[in-house]
Amino acid sequence: MVEPSGRPPGHVAGRLAVRDVDTSDEGQLRGWYDVWRAGQPHRRPDLIPSWEAAGRALSTAPPGFELQLFGVFDADTPVGVSLVNLPLDDNPTVVYADVMAHPDHRRRGVGTAVLEELERRARVAGRERVLTEVFQTPAGDGGGCAFAEARGYVAANREGVKAIDLAASEPRWRELEEQVAAALGDYRVVSWRDRCPEEYVDSFGAAQSRVMSLIPQGDLDLEDRDWTVERVRAAEERRVQVGLATFESVAVAPDGTVVGLTGVRVSTHDPRTAHIGVTMVLPEHRGHRLGLAIKLASHRALRAAVPQCRLVTTSNAEVNAHMNAINEAMGYRLVETLVEYHKRL
């Protein structure tokens, strides 16, 4: 791959030019989204966030991140796009990124131009490593893996992306809840929508702060985030502002602290598909079916509050046998594979 040449941003080789996206301009944002979505023709449409679900989230950065969106243009036509997400409070050597080229403009250097500009920005920001994702489906990966590997990116982790039909799964839940009741002991499950009750917020944040060190992440080597009360509240507020309804369920130990957590999020603007973020039980509290208990509770809450939601997706590392068994029991089935790539600049 050709290294960045040091020329000013906004200019790349030949007819192509880089332009930043003004995220307050809905027209520019929609143009960026349309190329980003078109760049994934090999994936099931219901697995890709719709404009109604994604538009608001793209307009503002999550708390603790700097978000940049840019496009590569051929004259006035957007032909490639990238999302650059810079963590500000943790993992200071990393940039998270998406790279997409419109399928009608591939094999013309568009993807290379997007990637060159992304890596230039990463270096300017003082980052040492770029992390990006490629989705593989039964129909293939759209050439994403070959493109990444040809440009020096190495597969760091693989996760199975699974989906569940909520209505078809619901008849299984009662029997699974009976299994949970027999193993729960003195633990209990607490659920809420959007905002954590005050009595749990400290230990909820403390449990979240251990997530990255407890989940299998292959060679990603990402640090835990320090989920202070202020960070928890800021994340909750941002999700509400962008139109996400979040159904959290936690396992509470006999001493009243949160020891397991899961959350499922659905757009209030397009509630057809929901997504699970993280499901985790602290190691010292495993063996009580807490992972299954909190997943069932969050799914019941979602089903009751948003009956028009049809599909829930989640992803787990292929080596995470315990969580994969829980998902299998609930009716989740593999729909694609997420390959996480990284490159040290």
Give your account of this protein's structure.
The model is unreliable at 1-13 (pLDDT under 50). By secondary structure, this protein is of the alpha+beta class. The two termini are 12 Å apart. Strands 1-2-3-4-5-12-6-11-10-9-8-7 form a 12-stranded mixed beta sheet, sandwiched between helices. It folds into 2 domains: 16-152, Gcn5-related N-acetyltransferase (GNAT) (Aminopeptidase), CATH 3.40.630; 162-339, Aminopeptidase (3-Layer(aba) Sandwich). It has helices spanning 26-38, 51-58, 110-124, 144-150, 166-169, 173-183, 198-208, 211-214, 229-241, 290-305, 321-330, and strands spanning 16-20, 65-74, 77-87, 94-101, 129-136, 154-165, 188-193, 244-252, 258-267, 273-281, 311-317, 333-344. The radius of gyration is 21 Å and the shape is globular.
CATH topology of the largest domain: Aminopeptidase
Low-confidence stretches: 1-13
The amount of helix comes to 25-40%
Write down the secondary-structure element order. EHHEEEHEHEHHEHHHEEEHEHE
Tell me about the biggest sheet? 12 strands, mixed
Q: What separation lies between the terminal Cα atoms?
A: 12 Å
Indicate the mean pLDDT: 93
CATH architecture of the largest domain: 3-Layer(aba) Sandwich
* Major β-sheet strand ordering: 1-2-3-4-5-12-6-11-10-9-8-7
